[in-house]
Amino acid sequence: MSSSFPRSPSPVLLNIGGKKYATTIDTLTQREPDSMIAAMFSGRHTVSRDSETGTIFVDRDGKHFRHILNWLRDGVIPMLKDSEYQELLREAEYYQLLDLSFVDFSYARIQNTNFSNANLWKARFGDAEAEGSIFQDANLRECELSGANLRGVVLDRANLQSANLQDACLIKCSFCEADLRSAHLQSAKLTDANLKGANLEGANLKGAKLNGTNLQGANLQRAYLRDVDLRDTQLEGARLGGANLLGAIR
To the nearest 5 percent, what fractions of the chain are helix, strand and coil? Predict the structure, then answer.
């Protein structure tokens, strides 16, 4: 039986892949009104309900749905085993729950995870293992990423303004057209990274490893490049006006 779902104070009964849950329309729709899960229960769509119990069936793995509900209720992500982060984030991606601001992923193992378009403002990834993950078009403004392993990560067009990437492993990362204004990149490993067209105005790159780094067309105005070895760095078309190059090797 399919029907629209009017707003009601009565509990909503859910069957998620065989696991039963009870919640409210407000929980499902208010925290992230633009998500798919909110759209499902907004009243604008039809949902499949059991004709006898009124239970709504969703064909997804129900193992982590309690964490999805607790996120919608309280904005809290639980401490999980490394492999379970991947499973939970896969479910969050399916339900289009993209507001992960302030979430703490410190020390988590979240390799090859898709965070594209996610709002990760002020999220914490300190010392996380996130090799091969995708943060394309994500909001990482003021994020804590110090010491994180981000080797091979895609950050094209991401907003990393004032993000802390000190001592992070950024080898072979792609930052094409990313916004890194005032970012902290001291001692970051940027070997073979692609920052073509990136905006690094006012960024601090003191001691960063830039061997083979592509900075073509990048904005490095007022950037701090003191004591950086630029001999193997591609700087064609880069803007360096006002940059601090004291002690830099060129």
Answer: 15, 20, 65
